[in-house]
UniProtKB/TrEMBL annotation:
Annotated 3-hydroxyacyl-CoA dehydrogenase C-terminal domain residues: 506-585
A Pfam family hit: ECH_1
Transmembrane segments: none
The organism's place on the tree of life at top rank: Bacteria
Designated name of the protein: 3-hydroxyacyl-CoA dehydrogenase
InterPro entries named among the record's database cross-references: 3-OHacyl-CoA_DH_NAD-bd, 3HC_DH_C, 6-PGluconate_DH-like_C_sf, ClpP/crotonase-like_dom_sf, Enoyl-CoA_hydra/iso, FA_oxidation_alpha_subunit, NAD(P)-bd_dom_sf
Keyword ATP-binding: no
Lineage, top ranks: Bacteria, Bacillati, Actinomycetota, Actinomycetes, Micromonosporales
Involved pathway(s): Lipid metabolism; butanoate metabolism; Lipid metabolism; fatty acid beta-oxidation
Species in which this protein is naturally found: Actinoplanes siamensis
Catalytic activity entry: a (3S)-3-hydroxyacyl-CoA + NAD(+) = a 3-oxoacyl-CoA + NADH + H(+)
Length: 687
C-alpha cells in the first residue's frame, strides 16, 4: 500500500448502538482523526485502511444497518492532499484511485443497508463516501458540501462523477462538479436536500438521534425514500452548454474541467465499473500533471501560508483596538467602516469635509446592515448593536480616543501627509495610523510626523468584502508594536495578510501594472486591441486584459502607472494611448465587445505583434519584475507573490499564482537565469 509518513490518520471508530424498535444493534462508524474541527478528517492510505477494517468488522457483527458519521462539525473533507506531491509515478496515482474505489464500493455493494449521517463539512472524497451509501441524512449545521476537486486541478476520483449525475441528474451534477468549484462555491445543507444529494435534513442539536430514528424507519419499511427518475434526454444538451461556458471562460487551459466533462458524459450510459475505471485513469493523469501540482501548491498557500504570514512580530506586542476612526466617507471608506464594524464590533466613526458626505457614508453602512438582515445573514439583535456603533462627525476631535485610524482618501501624497499631520495632534500617542494607499510610499507619508513609527500601510482590494488579501506595508520607521497590531486587526477582519516592504505599488499593483505596461506597449506599437485581448487565453486568466482594465478603472491604472514610471522609467512605460482613454472617459467594453469609439482614439505605430509575441513579451517582463522584487526584498519569498496574486488579483490555482507558470514554461530561467521555486514544489519533478 502507498504510504504517507506525514498522514494525519483519520480512524474509523466502530461501536454498536441500540435503536428503539430494532431487534439488532446498529453498526455506527465515526470518522475521527483525534483533533478538533480546525484539523478536519481526511482520507489518506492509512485512513482508507482503517475504514476498510471498520466495514469488515461491522459486516461481521450482523447489524440492522451500517451508518457512517464524523467527529463534531466535520464529516470528512476528502483525500489527504498533502500526500499527493509524494506520488512519484503514475502507477502510484492509479493505486491511490483504486484503493478509494475498492473501499467505498463496499458500502455501495453491501447487502446490509448503509447510511451516511453527514453531521458536518463533507467535501471531495468525504461527500463521495456518503454517495456510496444507500441513504444520506445531512445536518443543518453542516458548513459546506461539495465536490471541489476541479478547482485544485483534479476530478472527483472516487465515484463522484458517476454516482452524482445518476442520483440528482446531469444539471445538478454539472453545478456541483464544475460550476461551483470554478466559482468557489459549495452547497449549503438545504440546497443539498433540494438537489437530492441528501434524503433527509435534520436540525444539528439532535442530528444523530434523528438520523438513527429515521434510518430505523427506512429499514423497517415505515419511511419511504423517493428519488426522481433521471432525465437522460437533456444530458447531452446540458454538457454542450457547460462546455461552451468553460471554453468561453477558461479557453481550454484547465485540464481538470475538460476531464470532468468527459466523465460526466460517460456517466450517461456507462456501467459503474467502466465509469470508475475511467475516473482512476483521469485522476492519475491529472495528479501527474503540472496543473494539478500547481493547484495543490496554490491550495497550500491559501490554507497554510496565508494563516501564518512570514516576518510578523510577536503577537504579544499587539495593542488592543476598542475604537476605529476612518478618515473619509466615500465608497471605499464606507466599505471599510462596514468591515471593521462587522468583524471587530467596536465603535467606528467616519469623518469627511462636510456633514452631507459624512451622513451619506453612515447611511451606506446602515443600509448595508439592513440588506444583510433582509438576506438573513445577520440577526436583528446584532444589526441593532452594529447600528449603535457606527457614527460620523465633521469634528475631528471624535478621533481622540480611537486606537486605530485608517484613511481612505484620494491618492495624493501631499493630501495624505497633511491629513496625518493634522490627526497626529488629535489622536492619543499609541494610536495606529494606517493608510489604504495602493501605491504611495508609507515612509514618505510619515516622514514629517513626530511619531512615524506608528504609520503602517493597510492596502485592501476592491470589493473589500469579497477579496481576502490585505497587504500590510512596513515603512522604514514602522515599529514592531504597530506591525503586530496591524496583523492582529487583519486576523480579526478575517483577511489573509502579507508583510510587504515599502516599495512602489507594493505587490499586486506592481505586477499588474508591469503587465498592463507591456500590453499598452503592444497597443501603442500597432497591435490590434482584439489580438492583445485574446493573447493570454491559453493561460486561462480570470479576465482578459481589457476587461481587467475596465474593472480596475483606466484612471486608477494610469495613476499607479505614473507612480511606477517615475520610480522605474526603464521598465514602466508612460502610455499616451492609456492617457487618451482616461481623458475620453469612454467605457472600454460595450456588451462585452471592445468599444469601437475607443479604437478610434488610439494613435499607433506600424510594428504590430502576433498574439504569441504579445504573450511572450509580457511573460518575460513579469519574470524580470518578480525577480527584481525578490532581490529588493519586497516580500520574503516567491510564495508571497503567488499568494498575493491569487488572493488579490484572482489568479487561478492551475497557474499556482504566477511563479510556477513562469518556471514550468521556461520563461523564468530564460529571462532571469534561474527558477523561482525548487523543482517539484509546484510541478512534477522530472529527470
Amino acid at each position: 500500500m502507498i504510504e504517507n509518513p506525514n498522514e494525519v490518520v483519520t480512524k474509523a471508530l466502530l461501536r454498536p448502538v441500540r435503536v428503539p424498535g430494532l431487534d439488532k444493534p446498529v453498526a455506527l462508524i465515526t470518522l475521527d482523526n483525534g483533533f478538533d474541527h480546525k484539523k478536519p478528517n481526511s482520507f489518506g492510505p492509512a485512513g482508507l485502511k482503517s475504514l476498510d477494517d471498520a466495514i469488515t468488522a461491522a459486516v461481521e457483527s450482523d447489524p440492522a444497518f451500517i451508518a457512517i458519521t464524523g467527529k463534531p462539525y466535520i464529516f470528512c473533507v476528502g483525500a489527504d492532499i498533502t500526500g499527493m506531491p509524494l506520488l512519484s509515478s503514475r502507477e502510484q496515482a492509479v493505486e491511490l484511485g483504486e484503493l478509494g474505489h475498492r473501499v467505498f464500493a463496499r458500502l455501495r455493494d453491501s447487502t446490509i443497508p448503509t447510511f451516511a449521517f453527514v453531521n458536518g463539512a463533507a467535501l471531495g472524497g468525504g461527500l463521495e463516501v456518503a454517495l456510496h451509501c444507500h441513504y444520506r441524512t445531512v445536518s443543518t449545521g453542516a458548513a459546506a458540501l461539495g465536490l471541489p476537486e476541479v478547482a485544485i486541478g483534479l476530478i472527483p476520483g472516487w465515484g463522484g462523477s458517476q454516482l452524482l449525475p445518476n442520483l440528482i441528474g446531469i444539471a445538478g451534477a454539472a453545478q456541483v462538479i464544475l460550476q461551483n468549484p470554478l466559482t468557489q462555491k459549495t452547497l449549503r445543507p438545504k440546497q443539498a436536500k433540494e438537489l437530492g444529494v441528501a434524503d433527509a435534513l435534520f436540525e444539528a442539536a439532535d442530528f444523530l438521534e434523528s438520523s438513527l430514528a429515521w434510518a430505523a424507519g427506512v429499514v423497517k419499511g415505515e419511511v419511504t425514500v423517493e428519488r426522481p427518475e433521471i432525465d437522460r434526454e437533456m444530458w447531452d444538451g446540458v454538457l454542450w452548454f457547460a462546455k461552451n461556458q468553460l471554453d468561453e471562460k477558461l479557453h481550454g487551459a484547465v485540464p481538470s474541467a475538460n476531464k470532468a466533462l468527459e466523465l460526466l458524459a460517460l456517466a450517461k450510459e456507462a456501467s459503474f465499473s467502466d465509469g470508475t475505471a475511467a475516473e482512476t485513469e483521469a485522476l492519475a493523469d491529472l495528479i501527474m500533471g503540472d496543473e494539478a501540482r500547481a493547484s495543490l501548491y496554490a491550495f497550500d498557500l491559501v490554507q497554510r501560508r496565508a494563516k501564518r504570514p512570514v516576518g510578523v512580530p510577536d503577537r504579544s506586542l499587539a495593542r488592543k483596538v476598542t475604537k476605529v476612526g476612518i478618515v473619509g466617507a466615500g465608497l471605499m471608506a464606507s466599505q471599510l467602516a462596514l468591515l471593521f464594524l462587522r468583524r471587530l464590533q467596536v465603535p467606528v466613526v467616519l469623518t469627511d469635509l462636510d456633514q452631507a458626505r459624512v451622513d451619506k457614508g453612515v447611511a451606506y453602512v446602515t443600509g448595508e446592515i439592513d440588506k444583510l438582515v433582509g438576506k438573513r445573514r445577520l440577526d436583528e439583535g446584532t444589526a441593532a448593536k452594529l447600528r449603535g456603533l457606527i457614527s460620523g462627525s465633521v469634528d475631528k476631535a471624535v478621533f481622540a480616543d480611537a486606537d486605530f485610524v485608517i484613511e481612505a482618501v484620494f491618492e495624493n501624497l501631499e493630501l495624505k501627509k497633511k491629513i496625518w499631520a493634522e490627526f497626529e495632534t488629535i489622536v492619543k500617542p499609541e494610536a495606529i495610523l494606517a493608510t489604504n494607499t495602493s501605491s504611495l510610499s508609507i515612509t514618505e507619508m510619515a516622514a514629517d510626523l513626530q511619531h512615524p513609527e506608528r504609520v503602517v500601510g493597510f492596502h485592501f482590494f476592491n470589493p473589500v468584502a469579497v477579496l481576502p488579501l490585505l497587504e500590510i506595508i512596513k515603512g522604514e520607521q514602522t515599529d514592531d508594536a504597530t506591525l503586530a497590531t496591524a496583523f492582529a486587526v487583519g486576523r480579526e477582519l478575517k483577511k489573509s495578510s502579507v508583510l510587504v516592504k515599502d516599495a512602489p505599488a507594493f505587490v499586486v499593483n506592481r505586477v499588474l501594472t508591469r503587465f498592463t505596461s507591456e500590453v499598452f506597449k503592444a497597443i501603442d506599437g500597432g497591435t490590434p486591441l482584439d489580438v492583445v485581448n485574446e493573447a493570454f487565453d491559453p493561460m486561462g486568466l480570470p479576465m482578459r486584459p481589457i476587461a481587467l482594465l475596465q474593472l480596475v478603472g483606466p484612471a486608477v491604472a494610469y495613476h499607479v502607472g505614473e507612480t511606477l514610471h517615475r520610480a522605474f522609467p526603464d521598465r514602466f512605460a508612460d502610455s499616451p494611448n492609456l492617457k487618451r482613454i482616461v481623458d475620453a472617459g469612454l467605457p472600454l467594453l460595450v456588451d462585452d465587445e471592445i468599444n469601437a469609439d475607443v479604437v478610434k482614439l488610439l494613435e499607433v505605430g506600424d510594428t504590430p505583434l502576433t498574439a504569441d509575441e504579445v504573450r511572450a513579451k509580457a511573460l518575460a517582463a513579469l519574470a524580470e519584475e518578480v525577480r527584481i522584487m525578490l532581490d529588493e526584498g519586497v516580500v520574503a519569498e516567491a510564495q508571497d507573490i503567488d499568494l498575493c496574486m491569487i488572493l488579490g488579483a484572482g489568479y487561478p490555482f492551475h497557474l499556482g499564482g504566477i511563479t510556477p507558470y513562469l518556471d514550468r514554461s521556461g520563461v523564468a530561467e530564460r529571462v532571469t537565469g534561474k527558477r523561482f521555486l525548487p523543482r517539484g514544489v509546484a510541478d512534477v519533478r522530472r529527470s
